[in-house]
Design brief:
This protein is an alpha+beta fold. Helices cover 58% and strands 15% of the residues. α1 runs antiparallel to α3, α1 packs parallel to α4 and α3 packs antiparallel against α4.
């Protein structure tokens, strides 16, 4: 195959895989009724005038499935971390005991589970849109190469390869969504 075509296919594959990675990252942040340090990924803390991720100013552990334990490296940060978690508006209530911050993960109601499933599906659809955009970009690039003298049979093979990658990546998105939906709906 032509070197330019191979570059386009590699770039398309990277874009599609990044869409799947982003989906997995976003779904890890969804609360499924059990504790997960990824729930706090978006929380930033004012650490001596610098906004720092919570994981860079403390240890975050999950001693049991219903609790997240945050142990700051400096005890003076307890109040700041507690305020940052409440300001992040992620639906978690921190409890500061003077040594560590404990977050109890409440059980999900049936209504909340259905809302989370809708959110999972929305994230999945966003990932599929990104994958389709990568396919469109690749097809446009291939059309441009065809105008510049690329043989039609090579272009057709490349189109088929891009379509196959799109199909595979959409299947992976469906699997990731199904696993997360099952996780959310499990009581």
């Amino acid at each position: 195959m032509n070197e330019d075509v191979e570059l386009i296919i590699e770039e398309t594959k990277d874009r599609m895989l990044k869409a799947i990675e982003h989906l997995e990252h976003e779904l890890a942040r969804l609360r499924a009724g059990r504790s997960n340090p990824a729930l706090l990924d978006g929380v930033t803390v004012d650490y001596y005038g610098v906004n720092s991720p919570l994981s860079q100013v403390s240890n975050i552990n999950t001693p049991d499935p219903k609790t997240i334990l945050i142990q700051p490296w400096e005890k003076t940060m307890l109040g700041t971390i507690e305020k940052a978690i409440m300001a992040a508006n992620i639906g978690l209530m921190p409890v500061n005991n003077g040594e560590v911050i404990r977050i109890n993960i409440p059980a999900l109601t049936e209504e909340r589970r259905h809302q989370l499933v809708k959110q999972v599906r929305n994230e999945g659809e966003t990932a599929k849109i990104s994958i389709r955009n990568a396919r469109k970009w690749a097809n446009d690039e291939l059309k441009e190469l065809l105008k510049n003298g690329l043989p039609e049979d090579i272009e057709k093979d490349a189109y088929e390869k891009v379509q196959e990658m799109t199909h595979d990546c959409n299947g992976k998105v469906d699997k990731v969504m199904a696993m997360k939906e099952k996780d959310v709906m499990t009581v």
